[in-house]
Amino acid sequence: MLRYLTAGESHGKCLTSIVEGVPANLTLSEEDINAELGRRQIGYGRGGRMAIEKDEVQITSGVRFGRALGSPITMVIQNKDWNNWKDVMSSEFGVRSSELKAVTRPRPGHADLPGAMKYNQYDIRNILERSSARETAVRVAVGAVCKRFLDEFGIKVVSWVVEIGGVEVSSKFKVQSSKLEEIFFNAEASDVRCPDKKISEKMRKAIDMARKNGDSLGGIFEVAVTGVPPGLGNHVQWDRKMDGALARALMSIQAIKGVEVGMGFEVAERFGSEVHDEIYYRSQKSEVRSQKDNFWPLSPRFYRKTNNAGGIEGGMSNGEPIILRAAMKPIPTLCRPLRSVDIKTKKPFKATVERSDICAVPAASVIGEAVVAFEIANAFIDKFGGDSVGEIKRNYKGYREYLRRF
Predict the structure, then answer these.
(1) Would you say the pTM of this structure is higher than 0.85?
(2) How far apart are alpha carbons 277 and 279 in whole angstroms?
(3) In a 10 Å sphere around its CB, with 0-12 CB exposed, 13-18 middle and 19+ buried, how is residue 183 labelled?
(4) Is the pLDDT assigned to residue 51 strictly greater than 80?
(5) Continuous segment of H or E residues that includes residue 375
(6) Spatial contact of 305 and 278, defined as CB atoms under 8 Å apart
(7) Pick the CATH number of 3-90+100-405 from 3.40.50.11190, 3.60.150.10, 3.30.40.10, 3.40.50.720
(8) Residue spans per domain, the chain
(9) 279-332 pLDDT, tens per residue?
(10) Could you give the CA distance from residue 29 to residue 140 in angstroms, rounded to a whole number?
């Protein structure tokens, strides 16, 4: 079983994560993780902090000579902006300057007010520092470790943006299993992570308009997982269902307000005959082997020609690519602040302005990959067990042979 914790504040000294359950002998380097951190930081519409920070991880435990030990892996990301916030964010007694003013004006749409009420805080900075999406940097680090594990088994987690501020991709980019690799690589070449060049330009213009108006934009991204064997997750208990775990993971990302699996809400508008994916069987002679660059592993004998279920039936993976979609609300920190009420004076005021992005949907899609990778890796380890990568590979090989005979 995999599990992890994160710690740290947006303007604190660092962000930290501890990951437990990573199998021994998994090859892992800081470069593997830094590549994912770099992907999170790019994207049209990001704010000024991206010019300050260049996130790089330090692995401080659990890895020796490039291989996981099987013990907890600790990862640290230093906040380079810490030097400018030492007085504001000091952990020591008696160093708080009398000139520092408490943040007492909650921003609509943030954790500010409910957090202050819950934790009995009259300086909202004690809430906003931890609730900030800055925390997702270290979650991407955790996801990078999980991606490295999934690579060993030919499983890939990819994403792209399909809508920003009402500007959406055309129907030709509707997810098709045979086109996932092409869609992903096209998205990687776009600074809004959209696979359509013309729509990418329209998205940039929408972001420019929001910036000019002191506003922000949300959008929708999709995450696809390829090479997943049937049988991850479980139907026997509510908290072991694969789609439930994935939806929870995506909803845990700051500003995500909706999640769909496969066809999602569209199923409510269709007849059953238009929704459910018919099942076919291929003989051993026609069995499809791995394609270019091993992006997709061996296809199962049972398969579907459609994937409206998004690769999950009855809370379990069915062997088709897992397709997820998440909706991100506009970032609530605005340069043109909304009305609010001061928690100290109780007088109406304009909400506090913190440095912020205009649009972070491209970054959110990378974070989506990370949290999905964790859940898939966790379900994979739960299914195939083992304390080392070699042991899990032996178990997985036996399962694949069993599926070929099923």
Answers:
(1) yes
(2) 6
(3) buried
(4) no
(5) helix 361-384
(6) yes
(7) 3.60.150.10
(8) 3-90+100-405
(9) 998 876 554 444 443 434 455 688 888 999 999 999 999 999 999 999 999 988
(10) 14
